[in-house]
Write a structure and sequence with these properties.
four-stranded antiparallel beta sheet; Immunoglobulin-like; single chain; 17% helix; alpha+beta; three-stranded antiparallel beta sheet; flat; 30% strand
Length: 155
Amino acid sequence: MGLVKKPARAGHPDLALLHQELSQLIGRLVEFDRADRAGLGDWLPSVDVFECRGTLTVVVEVPGLAPDSLRVACSNGQLVVSGERRERRAPGAAAFLCMERPHGRFTRTILLDSPVDVPQSAARLQGGILTITLPRLKDRRGREAVIAVTREQEQ
């Protein structure tokens, strides 16, 4: 009696498509998790981001911080705001009974979805609110650029 081989089962196309979509979703979630971990620190200040008239505005709540304890940088399509709030001890206090104001380092990373004009950007700290304004660069795609045609001398 001979050995009979079963033909290989053809994969279900819907199942293959579902597998591909799940792999892509997991890949995006891993990237999202990495971006979120880059923003972790001892505490995270609240951030609002909005756009008005071609200017991206980022508002960060940093009460009690001085301008020299903050750092604002922009590179590779990301705005990174970092700083440190030092622990303050009340004079004569042996131990805190309640401590709700966080202290330590923080880093917040905001992904920028379009190019911004960094030299024209500004950061202002007033009343514990850091306001960063980033003018967006005009999109130059689709605009017509005329290239002059010159005539070469015939020899």
